[in-house]
Design a protein that fits this description.
Order of helices and strands: HHHEEEHEHEHEHHHHHEHEHEHEH
Shape: globular
Distance between the termini: 37 Å
Number of strands: 10
CATH superfamily: Aldolase class I
Oligomer: single chain
CATH topology: TIM Barrel
Strand order of the largest sheet: 3-10-9-8-7-6-5-4
Largest sheet: 8 strands, parallel
Number of domains: 1
Structural class: alpha/beta
C-alpha cells in the first residue's frame, strides 16, 4: 500500500501493526457482532440523490455545537485504553483533532490523564464520564476536568455492565489464562516488536491515568479491565443526573440513547445533547443500528436538544447520511483509533483529512453547499 486512501486502509495498517489482542479489542463487538455489522450495513443501504447544475463552487463544512464553531460535523469519540494502540495515543489524537478544528473526547479509562491531554493542547477538549460506585472518585475526576477547562461532559449511560465480547474472551483480554494461553498471548505480542517498543516500552506508564492511585495493580492490563468491570455503578438512574449537574456546570451530553422515551427523559433532565449510540455494537448485540433509530429520536426531541450520532461512521459520505436523518454531527471512534494505531498523530490527521474530502465531495454531488442544507430530501427513497 503506497498511501492509505480510506479509513479501511488505515484499519488494515492498524491490523498489521497491533497484536491481535489489541486489534480485536478495538475492532470487535459483543456476542456474534450482529449490531456491529448492522451499524455499517444500514448506513450503506441509504442512497443519496445526485443533483446536477447546482452552484457548489463554495462548500462550508463547519457547524456550531454548544456555542462553539468547529470545522467539521465530527467529534473524536471517547475510546478506552486508546493509549495502548499508540504511544500516548489520547494526547496524539487530541492534537490532531485540534489541528482539524474539531473536539476530542477523553475517556475516563484512557491511558493519558486529563492533565497530560490539557498540556498537549491549547483549546478545550471534551471529557467522557463513566459513573462509578465511588462518588468521591467521580467528584475528584469532574473537578480535574473542570480545572482543565473541558468544553463538555459526555456521560456514557449504556454500560451498567460490560457487554460480552467473544473476541476479547478468546484472546485472553481481561480473563485468567492457563500457562498455554499465556504463552500464546506472549508470542503474539512479541511478534509485533515495533508496537512493543513504541507502546510497551516508550509509552510507559501504561495505567489508567485518570484513575491513578485508585486502581490496584494498575500496571497490569488485565487488572485494569477487571477493575472497570467491578467499579461501574449499575444502580444509576435519571435521578443521578441531578448530582452530576451539581458537580459539572458546562454542557452535558448523554451518550448511549437508542429509545425515543429515553431521549425525552434526557430533555426533561436538562441535558444539552444526546448521542444516539449502541456503544459501537459492543454492548447489546440485539440492539438496532444507530442509524436505524436516529430519525425517530430526532423527530421525538426536535430542536429541544442537540442530537449527535455514532456507530459505523467510516467516511464523509456516512456523515452525510447521518446528517440527513437528523444528527447535527457524528462521533467517530474506531476510525480515529485505526489512524493512531497505524501512524500515530499523522494517522489521525490523515483519517480526518480523508473524511473531510469525502464529505465535501458528497456535498458537491448532492448539490448542498452547506451542512445546514443537508436534510432528508437528499436521500433517495
Amino acid at each position: 500500500m503506497l498511501a492509505p486512501a480510506s479509513v479501511s486502509d488505515y484499519r488494515e495498517l492498524a491490523r498489521r501493526r497491533l497484536p491481535r489482542v489489541m486489534f480485536d479489542y478495538v475492532d470487535g463487538g459483543a456476542f456474534d457482532e450482529a449490531t456491529l455489522r448492522a451499524n455499517r450495513d444500514d448506513l450503506q443501504k441509504l442512497a443519496l440523490r445526485q443533483k446536477v447544475l447546482r452552484d457548489v463552487s463554495t462548500l462550508d463544512t463547519s457547524v456550531t455545537l454548544f456555542g462553539q464553531r468547529q470545522e467539521l460535523p465530527i467529534i473524536l469519540a471517547p475510546v478506552g485504553f486508546a493509549g495502548m494502540m499508540a504511544r500516548r495515543g489520547e494526547a496524539l489524537a487530541a492534537r490532531a483533532a485540534e489541528k482539524a478544528g474539531i473536539p476530542f473526547t477523553l475517556s475516563t479509562v484512557g491511558v493519558c490523564p486529563i492533565e497530560e491531554v490539557r498540556k498537549a493542547t491549547t483549546k478545550p477538549f471534551w471529557f467522557q464520564l463513566y459513573m462509578m460506585k465511588d462518588r468521591g472518585v467521580v467528584r475528584e475526576i469532574l473537578s480535574r476536568a473542570s480545572a482543565a477547562n473541558c468544553g463538555a461532559l459526555v456521560f456514557t449511560v449504556d454500560l451498567p455492565v460490560l457487554g460480552t465480547r467473544y473476541r476479547d474472551i478468546r484472546n485472553g483480554f481481561g480473563v485468567k489464562l492457563n500457562s498455554i494461553g499465556r504463552m500464546r498471548l506472549g508470542w503474539n505480542v512479541a511478534r509485533h516488536a515495533s508496537w512493543v517498543y513504541d507502546v510497551g516500552y516508550k509509552g510507559r506508564p501504561l495505567t489508567l491515568g485518570n484513575l491513578s492511585g485508585v486502581v490496584p495493580n494498575a500496571t497490569s492490563l488485565g487488572a485494569l479491565l477487571a477493575w472497570t468491570s467491578t467499579a461501574l455503578d449499575p444502580s444509576v438512574t435519571w435521578k443521578d443526573l441531578e448530582w452530576i449537574r451539581s458537580q459539572w456546570k458546562g454542557p452535558l451530553i448523554i451518550k448511549g440513547v437508542l429509545d425515543e422515551d429515553d431521549a425525552r427523559e434526557a430533555v426533561a433532565a436538562g441535558a444539552e445533547g444526546i448521542v444516539v449510540s449502541n456503544h459501537g455494537g459492543r454492548q447489546l448485540d440485539a440492539a438496532l443500528s444507530s442509524i436505524a433509530v436516529l430519525p425517530k429520536i430526532a423527530d421525538a426531541v426536535g430542536d429541544k436538544i442537540t442530537v449527535l450520532m455514532d456507530g459505523g461512521i467510516r467516511s464523509g459520505q456516512d456523515v452525510t447520511r447521518a446528517l440527513a436523518l437528523g444528527a447535527k454531527a457524528c462521533m467517530i471512534g474506531r476510525a480515529w483509533v485505526y489512524g493512531v494505531a497505524a501512524k500515530g498523530e499523522a494517522g489521525v490527521t490523515g483519517v480526518l483529512e480523508t473524511m473531510k474530502r469525502e464529505l465535501r465531495t458528497s456535498m458537491a454531488l448532492i448539490g448542498r453547499p452547506r451542512i445546514a442544507d443537508i436534510d432528508r430530501s437528499v436521500l433517495q427513497t
